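Dear colleague,

Following up on Tuesday's group meeting, I ran the structure prediction for the two-component complex that the binding team flagged. I've pasted the input sequences exactly as they went in, so you can double-check that nothing got truncated or mislabelled along the way. The structure tokens for the whole assembly follow below. Feel free to forward this to whoever is handling the docking comparison.

Inputs:
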Amino acid sequence: MTTRRILYYLKIWWLMSKNSFLMFLVQKEAFAIFLFGKILRFGFFISFLYFLLSGSKTLAGYNTEQTIFFFLTFNLVDTISQFLYREVYRFRPLIVSGNFDLVLTKPVNALFRSLAGGADVIDLLMIPPLIAAICFLGIKISPNFLLIVSFVALVLNGLLIATAFHIAVLSLGIITLEVDHTVMIYRDLLNLGRFPIDIYREPLRGILTYLVPIAIMITLPAKALIGLASLKGILVAFLIGSISFFVSVRLWNFALKKYTSASS
Amino acid sequence: MKRYFTIFKISLQQEFVYRLNFIMWRVRNVIQIFLIFFLWDSIFSAPNRVLFGYDRAKILTYVLGILVIKAIVFSSRTVDVSGEISSGALTNYLLKPVNYFYYWLTRDLSSKLLNLGFAVIEFGILFIILKPSFFLQTDFLVLLAFFISLAIAIFLFFLILFITSFIPFWAPELAWGAQFIVIVIISEFLSGALFLLDILPKAFHEALYLTPFPYLLFFPLEIYLGKIAGLRIVRGIIISLLWSLVLWILMKSIWFRGLKVYRAEGR
């Protein structure tokens, strides 16, 4: 992809995101309620987690700070992917109504439009405080430069896997016309990463590491910063991230051929 | 009575129209239970550990109990009321010879029956797979108090959901936002569906008991597990009944005020 092409898509993303933000901001009360709701849920969870660990002292061998760090990493990956890929949640009506034809006929990659066509401003507002909280807590863990680089690289790898999941949801949406529950099941599975993957027993732990790689998306980056990830584990994570993305794009290409344009 | 029985039957049949949706909804419930189960399983990995007043058997019973109680209390069709008010579809019901509240209560009960059936099967499967320690309550009086508290919980949740659903009378665009805060967040956290309320500091815990939320899930489970007894059960039942009365009056009052401003937009 040339630099010119990248700039072209960045411009389109900016225009689509601006429209999406304006749509949100038109309904100020709803915007305020959802923002308040997200902050409230985050606050509740952190508070309960803190009180829980005040009593139990550790969770699967991790202390309070480390456990909260896992939770913050989960939130970072989850919030960024929701910010970028909110349009996935609006994909089903396009397919059911046949209006996806209008996306296919435009000079923009249909996957790009379906995936990133409506960034979520509420999640955008949540990202800076989250990063600040991660930095604040991360410093307390005292990582060296290499561990910080590993953490950032693995979070990006986690976002690549999240992208793959969202592409798979879109593809399944074209094939089965079902998006809403599929994406919510993905969210529920991702929620299993709120706590370190070490709490789960086998075979669930293995499934969450290799089959539905929640562990690689969330637990591994946090472990890398704490200094508990091996080089082999990190390399396997990047391999799984690349394979997931490759497979999801193939699935999308396959699904596109199944699109019937019904109802249009 | 016959008409509500018919509504019950039709509503049950409607649940089967979107079978995939229903099955996926149940799958989601099981996934959510995994998170809570393994969280507590990990904390109580030492067999003799007692924490927050629970031993391993009681805490794992609590977690599996959440699956069943949530199916009974939290499964509901009343969640659609706000959408009907904002779309104007409420008009159809106002013209029919049915009591709007009984209509939705009946639909709720059919949804609860179906969800309970699935939850029991899931409970059995999870029990076989996870092989948790389990606390079986055999005291008849405790079980009676448990079922009474459960009936109150069903009614309380119905009232909370209905009151929240009335917001679109004044602000149609806030239908989902209000439910997101009250049902998804506040009820979930403050009912004990995710974390035990015993982990909170005593003052918070006591204050929370003056709100209706712990009576949705935590209180019935506490009774079942024998964590509270005697006067504390009676006190809890009285408070939850008082809340039911207050919320019923509030619901009726908001309903009549809402009808005065209802303009059937979209119809």
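Chain B is about 70% helix and 0% strand.

Cheers,
M.
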